[in-house]
Predict the structure of Peptidase S54 rhomboid domain-containing protein.
Amino acid sequence: MNCSLGVNAFRPGVQVAAHHFSKACSRLLVVAAPTTRCFSSTTLLPSTAQNQWQAKRGRLSSSTPFSGPSSISRIAVRTLKFAARNRVIIHYVDLPPNYKDEEGLPFRVDDLAAGEVLQLFGPQMTTPAANRLLRILHGRRVAGTLDDPVLKVNTAGYTPKDRRIALDYLRKNVYVDEVVNAGLRAEDELAALEKQQEEDAQAQAQPEGEDNVTKQLGYKSRFKMYQDDTEGVEESEQKKPEPRSVYGKSAFDAIRARNEAIWKEKLRKQEEERKKLEEEYKNGKAGPLAKADDTPKREVSAKRKEWEEWAMSDLKEPPKMPAWKRLLPSTVFVALLVAGFLTYSQLYVAPSRENRLWPDCPPAAATVAVLIGANVLIWFLWKVPIMWKPLLRYFLISPATPNAFSMLGAVFSHQVVWGHLIVNMPFLWFFGTRLHDEVGRADFLTTYILSGSVGFLTSLFWLVLKGNFHMTTLGASGAIYGISAAYFWMHRFEGFKIFGLPPDPYTGVQGLAFIGLFGGLNIWGLFSRNHTMDVVSHLGGMLVGIIAGHLMEQKKKARLQGAGNTQLNLKDQKTGSGVLDTMLKN
């Protein structure tokens, strides 16, 4: 074939790719060896600069022979990067023969984790859906089908914003020359159309008995849209011989065939390994990440499965109802709690030492110990299957089906894992005993219960109004934040030392600083996408604690002022009695 043709002699798809490569000299590639396909360009590049560019790119060894004059380079339209060396495919020539648009291609070694998906797309996108969208779009970039309207049905379930975010992420992190890939795809499509026209023309010109011979000589594109819909890609490749190219068989065709064979062998080995691991897992053998002496996981008993089915709700989705119907019962219940405990704090009279249940135990220690015991008891009941149903109903807050009484029960409930309970109880003892010593049992219990219940009501409003019906919450954290905020508010201008630091003569950190620290951490968590704590209930509990601390501070001042006035009156009475006695004696 004559190799003196210019770029315009190529097919339109190749012209696009060639012009794209010829925009900047630093992007030209040297043809490694002459083939039956003709590649040439009117753009010239000195061989010295070309060799430097090739050495920098690592595309060509120093012993690679050049064709043509030493001062002129030719453009290689198709660049090649072996798929076997990199699991992420970025070149059109590496496209596997079993590629499907609805499955896409891996865009990196591992899929995005849940935290990365949350940071990239937000909470409205699930992790599997996000990775599927990224695989589809990456496959289209490699296959050159980004603008194909026929394939948009596979991404119709995603919003335009999500598709734009995914495409921007891929273009930023995974380099793919979309123009070249689209040009190569156009070349294949054009060749397929031309061969189809030739087949139609031959079918009309020859007898029907020769139709089978014509079909055997037809061009088979890598795209399924140009194949018989009744046959799979792999089956059709096994039955049909290699297609005859209008240019003849080139080195690229041989490389492509070899890469396709490598790809099929790799898929076969992966499938065998997957089946082997599944079989080992079924037989209870140690997997690749398990120790050889590890015992297999114990299967859930049939009785436990019955308890789970009995405890779980039969609802497939949250019931349809307006937000006020979900929030009104809990709001009324919490309002009654506030009124009841405020009345209790005003009418409570502390018993004498003789009438107490544990007279030798300090009141603060006894009260806080009972609260800790209640939390531990509820935590233990979560491990008893027969208690799951009442616990799920009255000790867990679910915005999908809220129960008003859970506003109080969840204050004493913790997750089944021990870490949640172990973290909360020391703080309850540390701040609870100190606040109790200052304000008494009634005001302490009022602060604890109202901080927890109002904090959970705040969290319920947040979850319902945001539509997060799949989330649940429980724990004493809101109540503990409330009593700690109340304590620090009553000592907001006093200094606190931690393990004797800072040393004298410094007074330490003021209570206001601790309130700001706790509040700032929770506000930061509120706007962080990776948090798993109910920071809204923490903030609600802190707000109640600050209000309670202010009220208890005013109450304490009034009590001290009243005690001072009483002592002054007694002193005046004693003074008056002494004067009267003196006058009588005289």
Notes: The longest helix spans residues 535-585.
